[in-house]
Every structure is written in structure tokens, then in C-alpha cells.
Amino acid sequence: MRAFADLIRARQSELWSAITQSGHPQVCEHELRTRFDDFAHWKCCPQWHRKLSHKLNAKEFAAKCGVRVANLYWYGTDPAAIPFDTLPTSYVIKLSNGANSEQVIPVRNGTFDVLKERHISHTTIEQTLNEMRGVVADPNAGIIVEEFIGSAEEGLPHDYKFFCFHGVAKVLYVCDRHRNTLTWYDRDWNLIRDPMHTMRNFGPTEERPINLEAMLETAELLARSYEFPFVRIDIYCPQDVGPTFGEFTHTPFGDSLDFFTPFANKWLGQFWERSGI
């Protein structure tokens, strides 16, 4: 049985090779953004999941599955064109192809960057977006401005990340970006005490979320629609709005796969290779 990290590496190669087995060029990953009503049109080739790497595509796909998504305020490619004067006081700006939650600016009260814990001007936001494009090596990356999920007064909502295998959520973790920690649980919210990934420390344990069952249903609905043995589904779930889609992640921890522990590699790998366990 293969290790989970090796399965992720194989998935990376399969998704991002220049030419797929069907001969479909890699161009379908980010550039294609058309509003298809029929799911069959999304699934143009075996690697159609690449389209969901574009965060706006992912939002549209999730919405077509009947899942709540953050309201879209603006989309474009020119940072100077962001209509700051018409935005609410709290909002989130992100690149369409950002990764590892690095290319995100959550703003509350008009000028406060919640992630960096600093006040930020509109000019600095524009400059930061251009710098982010340099990081992802895409000077034309799209810019998404959307709803701030949860209460702006309470800061960033919890980010629940569900590891789904064959349409079933088996494992999840909660990411605390301020502490730089991860706390892992099974689907019944039992704490996983064995080390899973050594790049980040264990975070504080928390009470079982009131909306856990609703989040599981949402994650599994999206995982079934994704139609692949593994996908990570990210969900926010403030009590006032319920489960809200975050993103699809094809290959989590892609740049730090060596930090999965032997326990995690064996345990997660078996879920991938053997359905029904």
C-alpha cells in the first residue's frame, strides 16, 4: 500500500503535466472561466479538476452543487480598478490562483488587515496584490473581492479542512493561522493524538462544533461531485450563516509532503487505496 505523500505526488504529476493522456493542454487550469449549466461541460478531460484551481471556477461549481458560497463583490485583473468606495467595511481580497492561503487579504472596518494584524491603505492593497502576483509568477492573475465570512469583530472564522476519500470525509483539521498550528480530528471529532504532520505544532483542542454534521454533509456532497478518490474540501461555518464553501484542494501540503509522519502516510494512504473502510 502506497504512502499518502506518494499518492499526492502522483496526483500532482497527473494534474499538472503539460499534456494529459487525452492530449488536452494545460491551459484549462486557470484561463478557462465560462459559466456552464451542465456539469458534463466542466468535465472536458480526465484532468478537468484543474479548472477548480481557479477560485472563481470553484465557487461557481460549488454553487451549482447547492452549497453556500461567499458573495462576490467584484472580479477583475487591475488592482487599481477595485471599487473600494462601493465595498462594505469588511471584505476579503484574494488571487484567483493563490495557494497555501498566502495570497489573501481579509479586511475589516475598512482598513484593518486581519491576517497581518495591521492597518492597510488602498494603495498598499494594490501594491500587495502586485507583489502576490510575483510570488505566483502570474502577472495577470485574477483578483476576487468577496464577502467576509463570519463576524468581522471576531476576526477570521475557523477554517475546517476535510480530507475526503471516495466521497466520504474521514479526517479533518482546524488551522489556526495566528498560532501556526493544526489540530486533527476524525469525522466524529475524536482528537487524533498521533502526530500527523511535523511542520506545524498541534493546536489547542476545541469543543465539537454545533454544525459538524452539516459541514460533513456539505464536504461529502462536494467530494462526490468531484469524482476522484481524494480531495480536501475547505469549509467555513460561522453559526449565523452555516457551512460556507472555501475551496477545493487537489494536493494539500504539496510543498511539504516529506513532513507527513509514517503514521499519517499509512493511515491516510489506506483510505485512498481502499474504499469502504
How would you portray this structure in words?
InterPro entries: ATPgrasp_TupA. Pfam families: ATPgrasp_TupA. It comes from Solimicrobium silvestre. A six-stranded antiparallel β-sheet has the order 1-6-2-3-4-5, covered by helices on one side. Strands 10-9-8-7-11-12 form a six-stranded mixed β-sheet. The longest helix has 15 residues. Helices cover 25% and strands 22% of the residues. It is globular and about 55 Å long. The protein is an alpha+beta fold and 277 residues long. The chain has six helices and twelve strands. The protein folds into two domains: 179 residues, D-amino Acid Aminotransferase, Chain A, domain 1 (2-Layer Sandwich), CATH 3.30.470; 77 residues, Dna Ligase, domain 1 (2-Layer Sandwich).
